[in-house]
Amino acid sequence: MSGAVIGRGLFLTPEETAMLDGGRGPGTAMAMRIVVAVAGVLGADRLMPITNAHIDSCLYHGKAGLDFAQKLADLGAKVAVPTTLNTSSLDLLHPGLVHLPPGDAVPARALMDAYRSLGARATWTCAPYQSTERPAFGENIAWAESNAIVFANSVLGARTERYGDFLDICAAVTGRVPHAGLHLSEHRMPAVELDCSQLSAAMLGHEAVWAALGGVVGRLVGERIPLLTGIDPQVADEDKLKAFGATAASSGGVALFHIAGVTPEALAAGWDAGAIGGAVDGALEKEVITPAVVRAMRDELTTADPASPLDAIALGTPHFSTTEFSQLAGLLQDKPSFSPGCTVWINTSREVLAQAREAGHVQFAEDRGARIVVDTCTYITPILGPEERAVMTPSGKWAWYAPMNLGVDIVFGTMAECVDSAIAGKVVRHDDQWA
Question: Which terminus of the chain is more exposed, N or C, with fewer CB under 10 A?
């Protein structure tokens, strides 16, 4: 096939050369220049097509981000593949909920409008994998947002590198990414085995335990790819894997994990829930994960005095799923309203909220005083009131970032602990859930 070789041996097809030379418009050319430059840095020999993109750069951090998106739009750029949008700085369904000054709210809205004008879907969620339309096993995609990246790679078995602001939208506009990194099979093999056989199925029945496990694993492996063994496949549903991956990506730099007998690449390789033996070429470093280590991470994520009054509960980071709304409704069955001194915040996406309302699950929480947030996230935008200083959450990601972002103190616990604590207005522990 004819084409061109540029820079340090980067081959471009005629179609890609036309994009770079402006044959598909100045907006596409601008995006292609950035993709090509990154490919050169990574030492890629060619580009590869993608089928899907998720854009993280929707949160307003300053003028540069807005200028970039508007420049692409002004030059006529449009996304070339189905593209979803991450959380923004505003909740457009609940005006006034986010306490941004006009000097930030106006450009924040302009940034959202700019990405919509580029042809992306107004999903405004950090969990695009909860959509009815999501990538399949083996698809090459360009997803940004750390928890979305690790979920796509690990749970869906799609393939994405750690794409970030600006490069994410350039990949969406060109439909191309560098042929490098986690798109390549040789870069997706595990580097360390983590034996989790001491963690009981009962303990792993709680998403918060998986989140704490993710904190342990992220700190232990950094950016290496772990293979978890000794886990009963029956307990590893998508919400637990979501909780695990989000915290592992926060405490470390995990973009891909394998669980023997559970995740698609582990299943394809024939790794069962026990030790992998010689399934992976070469001996893997091996670590044993104990219940005590997981409980220690729970305690480390708890920065508030559990004996002090509780001001708020934060659910839904990453965004609450329909299954989690159902689980919450079950926990609230025959329970009284939440304590008036404790606000329950639930973050979710518009799509999931509509589905959960139709199923009748949202009303259980709202009738007891819960407040729903969409389009954004409570750990990164000013939503909580100044009086809400002690916050309980089952989210490892929320617990990891909120103290720094919001200046709050955290109590980390399971969903059941959060529900009972919200009703009591003080921390309620169920230690048997961590046994």
Answer: N
111 lies in the same domain as 68: yes
Establish if 5 belongs to a structural domain. no
- Classify each residue of 18-56 as buried b or exposed e, where b means 16 or more C-beta atoms within 10 Å of its C-beta: ebbeeebeebbbbbbebbbebbeeeebebbbebebbbbb
Q: H-helix or E-strand containing 65? A: helix 63-74
3-state secondary structure labels for all residues of 210-225:
HHHHHHHHHHHHCCCC
Residue 267 pLDDT > 50: yes
Decide if 125 contacts 84 (C-beta within 8 A). yes
Q: Which residue type does 291 have?
A: P
Token digits for 16? 């890609």
Closest CA to 34 of 235, 383, 42: 42
Residues 198, 67 share a domain: no
What is the dihedral sign for C-alpha 394, 427, 391, 290? negative
Cα 252 to Cα 150, 291, 362, 396: the distances in Å are: 12, 20, 33, 12
If pLDDT is split at 50, 70 and 90, which confidence band does 281 have? Answer: low
The HSE-up count of residue 271 (CA atoms within 13 Å, CB side) is 24
CA-to-CA dists, residue 248 to 149, 215, 220, 224, 244, angstroms:
12, 5, 9, 11, 6
Helices (H), 252-386: 264-269, 291-301, 322-332, 350-359, 362-366
In 7-151, which ranges are E strands? 10-12, 47-49, 53-55, 83-85, 142-143
pTM of the model: 0.96
Residue whose pair of structure tokens reads 């924040």 in the numeric block? 108
Query: Which of the 8 DSSP states describes residue 308?
Result: S
Domain endpoint, select from 153, 185, 217: 185
Q: Which of 163, 185, 207 is the last residue of a domain?
A: 185
**Residue 1: what pLDDT?**
46
Q: Residues of the chain with pLDDT > 70: what percent? A: 97
The total of other beta-carbon atoms located within 10 Å of residue 268's CB is 11
In this structure, what are the phi and psi dihedrals at residue 372, rounded to the nearest 5 degrees?
Answer: -100, 140
Other beta carbons less than 10 A from residue 179's beta carbon: 17
